């Protein structure tokens, strides 16, 4: 045991810092809720199979071109 009182680990946060942390947490929760509720819409008349633009190529009517 020590004769000295325990030292707090951190300095107390200023009111502005506490507000900033609360706002950041609210933004994180809103982003998580938005991402969770958003289901990807099914693509209509899109390409069959993997996306042809994944390698930077564009395909129209069977003709592929890369830019």
From TrEMBL:
Region (Disordered): 1-67
InterPro entries xref list: SDHF4
Signal peptide, first to last residue: none
Compositional bias annotation for Basic and acidic residues: 54-67
Family membership noted in the UniProt record: Belongs to the SDHAF4 family.
Xref: PANTHER family: SUCCINATE DEHYDROGENASE ASSEMBLY FACTOR 4, MITOCHONDRIAL (PTHR28524:SF3)
Name under which the protein is recorded: Dihydrodipicolinate reductase
Species for this entry: Bradyrhizobium nitroreducens
High-level lineage: Bacteria, Pseudomonadati, Pseudomonadota, Alphaproteobacteria, Hyphomicrobiales
């Amino acid at each position: 045991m020590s004769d000295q009182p325990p030292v707090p680990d951190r300095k107390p946060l200023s009111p502005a810092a506490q507000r900033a942390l609360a706002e950041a947490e609210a933004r994180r929760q809103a982003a998580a809720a938005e991402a969770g509720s958003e289901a990807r819409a099914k693509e209509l008349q899109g390409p069959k199979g993997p996306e042809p633009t994944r390698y930077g190529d564009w395909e129209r009517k069977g003709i592929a071109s890369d830019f």
